[in-house]
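Form 12-C: Joint structure prediction
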Amino acid sequence: MIRTPVKASKTYEIYTGSGLLDSCGKVMREVSPQSTKLLIISESNVAPLYLDRVKDSAVSEGLEVFTFVFEAGEASKNINTISGMWGVMAKAGFTRTDLVAALGGGVTGDMAGFAAATFLRGINVVQIPTSLLAMVDASVGGKTGIDLPEGKNQVGAFWQPSAVIEDTDCLKTLPDEVFTEGMAEVIKYAYIMDTSLYSLLEEKAFLGIGIRENATLMERIVGMCVADKADVIMSDEFDNGRRQTLNYGHTVGHVIERNSNFTKPHGVCVAKGMGIIIDACEKAGTLASEEASKMRALIKAYGLPVDDDITPEDVVSGAMNDKKKRGNTLSVILVNKIGVSEIKKMTPDEFLKFLKGDGASC
Ligand SMILES: NC(=O)c1ccc[n+]([C@@H]2O[C@H](COP(=O)([O-])OP(=O)(O)OC[C@H]3O[C@@H](n4cnc5c(N)ncnc54)[C@H](O)[C@@H]3O)[C@@H](O)[C@H]2O)c1
Ligand SMILES: [Zn+2]
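Section 2 - Result
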């Protein structure tokens, strides 16, 4: 097991390893000793697989357990589902010292985190992520929230968990395409900040997504990503600077995702977005061609695409509508050397020239 400490507005630990579900109750007891009640929030795909184990572990620590299971999928990530969670806690007489646990992918974590952040103005939440994306990204860092018809993640709160318990064995039941999507975020960490992770992923690239069969390897890879994310959070919890580097591949990827009406999966779009930025940096001459080829090859080795037929014009107009832009400039994340990222402010015109390879340096 790997333990990664996080010191942000809350200090907590991330536990990553094989078989951790059976001892999650002990961690909950440790981080929230005054709790008598626990609400486990999960969804229709994950609950039949893992809910009983989490429940048993919590009951054996003397917690009175309530459950809330919603229908799996992003479509559930709305205020009605949250309202259901609040209702269960209110009826059961939860107090400020009681506890919520999120058991599932990023959709579950974001919603359970938000329900915990808002119920009685905030009660403790323990994240128990079961998807690769949720383990390496969504469960760490305290961003919680829901979607509105007008856009994704439009309402939410920063609410750090009291602990994150990542049982990497859960990855075995993840559908192949969902695992593959998560690999886009894993590769992202390698490119923006982690040459050791890059070397490991390159060394194991011949396995492709077969890496998931190797429990020790997965524990190591997830642990490295978690340490990277924790490092970023600790230097910029509220997303005013360095945390933006986690958007590598996302500025372009979000536009592709939205233009497809969310039919193209997030991780696939992020991979495409990274590919498009790699091409642009190569054309600008700031990223060596040999390095760019290695970067594209690694993304492809893990079953992800590196290009898309979106035009540079559509990327720029889409990016200008993104909620994350500040003022009339865009913060574009660039990697000109594996392991090193920079935030580059560009006007829409500069971004267009950059994407077209029209001589703008990056
Ligand atoms: N809070 C953050 O910082 C942050 C960061 C990135 C993404 N997100 C959010 O995370 C969400 C995406 O996360 P996701 O990709 O995990 O989506 P998800 O929660 O919908 O899970 C993806 C799919 O995998 C299934 N699943 C999850 N774990 C499983 C397991 N162990 N076995 C079998 N099936 C399993 C789910 O039922 C679902 O069908 C989005 O809503 C996104 O906005 C949040
Ligand atoms: Zn992402």
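Section 3 - Comments
The mean pLDDT is 96. Residues 2-173 form a domain with the Rossmann fold fold (CATH 3.40.50.1970).
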